[in-house]
């Protein structure tokens, strides 16, 4: 079970392994959705008649760049996902362990879990921001940012060392509360669903998380992840949009590299507050939720795969 439990027999090393493996599996499956999401978020507003649907964007990418375009930036994405997911689970497990070992009053349990989630999200956002900047640009113009070292050099040339932390503030403001909401909602729902599935009596209330049947664990984790992913992503989405637009602030198109149709006329920002206010002025309040549809699809699938695979990896590691 995610979070600290007195009956938990897993070591921190086992949990970080489970988190890293979960992140790798999740990234491979959801990468195409990430490519679609980022290109939709960064596209300039057009008239409704000219605005591309998700299907049209997918078709454009496929015809212009081929099937493998949906996995542009995948290698960096794997590094990002392993670091991000592993650090989130590790920091959350560690902080909840120390917090609940030193605090006996369960009255503040949900508040403590929320604060631990903010800590986990903030640490993760800081750790992966440089990788994320390179990865986002690779998904836009692969040739210009091809490979890790070449991509890093291209980012450095565009804006110096600070270019690697473009969008950092928005990332922390988004991921801190988002992880907090996700873990809090998941930690609240999963035990309730498990208890319901087991039709628990007073005798089985003390059952350890790894003693639950795998199919019940899978279903409870999937349902908890579905709800927590939707809630957290919708609440924090404007910061996600702003982060992406900030991460390409210093990006400059070079004529010697082919730029796909879906990676032209991008919206860039250099200041978080101005980015949000300009988006509202130009695109209206709903402009803050551009690309929400594909983002929700990605968030739900990501959360379901992440939490269920994490729980199942934990289950396997303690057996």
Give an overview of the whole structure.
There is one protein chain. With 319 residues, this protein is mainly α. It has one domain (12-318): Mitochondrial carrier fold. Helices cover 69% and strands 0% of the residues. It contains nine helices and no strands. It has helices at residues 12-42, 54-65, 74-102, 109-140, 148-159, 168-198, 214-246, 272-283, 292-318. Helix 1 (12-42) runs antiparallel to helix 9. The protein starts with 11 loop residues before the first helix and ends with a helix.
Short description:
The protein is an all-alpha fold and 319 residues long. Helix content is 69%, strand content 0%.
The CATH architecture name reads Alpha/alpha barrel
Helix % is 55-70%
What do the pLDDT scores average to? 81
DSSP helical segment count: 9
Work out the radius of gyration: 20 Å
Instruction: Please report the total strand number as a whole number.
Output: 0
Order of helices and strands: HHHHHHHHH
- By CATH, the superfamily comes out as Mitochondrial carrier domain
Low-confidence stretches: 201-205
Q: In the CATH scheme, what's the topology name?
A: Mitochondrial carrier fold
Question: Which structural class is indicated by helix and strand composition?
Answer: mainly alpha
